[in-house]
Amino acid sequence: MPSDTAPRPVILTGDRTTGPLHLGHYVGSLRNRVALQATHAQYLLLADTQAMTDNAHDPERVRRNVLEVALDYLAVGIDPALSTICVQSALPALAELTLLYLNFVTVARLERNPTIKEEIQARGFGRDIPAGFLCYPVAQAADITAFKATLVPVGEDQAPLIEQTNELVRRLNRQAGRDLLPEAAALIPAIGRLPGVDGRGKMSKSRGNAVPLSASDAAIEAAVQRMYTDPDHLRASDPGRVEGNVVFTYLDAFDPDLQAVADLKAHYRRGGLGDMVLKRRLTGLLQATVTPIRERRAELARDPDLVMDILRTGSAKGRTLTEQTKREVTEGLGLFSL
Ligand code: TRP
Fold first, then answer.
1. Which of 8, 93, 211, 265 would be a feasible disulfide site paired with 41, CB 3.0-4.6 Å?
2. Ligand 1 centroid, distance to 91 Cα (angstroms)
3. What number is the average pLDDT over the span 6-23?
């Protein structure tokens, strides 16, 4: 156990509760979080309020997935004794800070955020952008600052949100005349985004190219079978391309034997190595990763009261902390505070 005398750096991260998590989340962040919880004060937010910003038509989906994502966290090895899991909607100070922070950002700045621009496009909102959606980067800044997080492990696509958070922090600190809140750094995984099994864009449930953390051995095998390789690699004896070959991308992400992967790449490029050999290796690796997660998840799912208790305890802790920060911010800005 690390010593508790020195304050640990604070991590805040979260996930929208719109669906169970998949291997893309595992590679992109869950794996990191399990490692970081030993050395950091880590807070995980089940972002149901943020999920509502593009799911107002389906609150039931948002509610149901709070428990699903919590199960995913616990199943991959997030330890509630080391990490604090909070439900966003159970922390009213986050909403209060959001409302306050909205006055420190312009509509034009919100519309310029590249992540939001892309997401608006992808969702086909056209001119009917929910106001909550346009403003969610401000809510996310509230999430990050309320916990006084200095590290935010996120995917590459979220970097502009951290930038916007820090802009807000600087404005608030300038207004307060002192360092009320710390700036945060994005922690972006080196491996980058895991592509979907079809090789078209990132892994995502809505694109139907995802492998859920509860996938059966047969489902994993089927997913790897249809995985995109090199379309010009028709015979095993042909030289094959490694770049853009999804099977190799996955081996890079999951195979602990780096030397073996390097050798396989060289062999594939030379020719004489069939896709099936690679796919069998990958299937085994993915099954070995997912099986314990799936089993632990099923076990936890049989005891929803235990999971609810973990969420209640975590949220109570988060409530105290975020309430305290909200007080410091209102007082720091010189607002009336009863
Ligand atoms: N935007 C994140 C996602 O899409 C979820 C999230 C909410 C988050 N609040 C956060 C991430 C704070 C990092 C920090 O999944």
1. 8
2. 15
3. 95
| DSSP conformation class of 244 | T
Residue 50 CA, ligand 1 centroid: distance in Å: 8
Rounded to the nearest angstrom, the gap between the alpha carbon of residue 125 and the centroid of all alpha carbons in its chain is 23
Question: Which residue of 17, 143, 188 sits with most ligand 1 atoms within 8 Å of its CB, as the best mutation to test the pocket?
Answer: 143
The minimum-distance atom of ligand 1 relative to the CA of 143 is 12
Residue among 46, 101, 161, 322 whose CB has most ligand 1 atoms within 8 A, to mutate: 161
- Identify which of 10, 11, 13, 138 to mutate to test ligand 1's pocket (most ligand atoms within 8 A of the CB): 13
Ligand 1: does its nearest atom lie under 6 Å from the Cβ of 50?
yes
pTM of the predicted model, to two decimals? 0.94
How far is Cα 285 from Cα 128, in angstroms, rounded to an integer? Answer: 44
Protein residue closest via CA to atom 13 of ligand 1:
13
For the chain, the 3-state helix, strand and coil shares in percent, each to the nearest 5, are 60, 10, 35
CA nearest 279: which of 220, 216, 214, 194? 220
Q: Tell me the CA end-to-end span of the chain in Å, nearest whole number.
A: 41
pLDDT 10s digits, 24-77: 999 888 999 999 999 999 999 999 999 999 999 999 999 999 999 999 999 999
Name residues whose C-beta falls within 8 Å of residue 215's C-beta, 6 or more positions apart in sequence.
Answer: 223, 290, 294
- To which H or E segment does residue 87 belong? strand 83-87
Query: How far is ligand 1, taken at its centre, from the CA of residue 68, in Å?
Result: 16
State how far the Cα of 119 lies from the Cα of 221, in Å rounded to an integer: 32
List of domains in the chain: 10-194+304-332 (3.40.50.620), 217-298 (1.10.240.10)
